[in-house]
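Researcher: Here's the sequence for the chain we discussed earlier.
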Amino acid sequence: MEKIYRTVIIDDEESAIDNLCFELQRYTYISIEGKARNGVLGMKLIEKIRPDLVFLDVELPDMRGMDMVAKLKGYVSWNMSVIFYTAHDKYVIDALRAKAFDFLLKPVETEHLIQTVSEALELDQT
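Model: Thanks. This is the structure I predict for it:
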């Protein structure tokens, strides 16, 4: 039986969440387990669901995505890949320093998403 990867999306922009969900529907092995529109709710969702993949916007209304990842470091005891995605490429260095698995620009291009998800899930299987 194929593993199902539990996924959470954290973004304050509803249309970005919808677009990403649409793109991720092509993967039968990815299950969108939850969505949050700010960092506080996103952290609660991560603690509750314990996802394998998190798509995290860099600019949330209550905190930056990098700050959220820093706060989660002591709580996450499972294998979780964080993929930052944003419309602003100025955050690439900060995202990588925050130990992001990868960084995607909005709107997410299908080929980049396919490559990033495949690489993230390969890492999980090693």
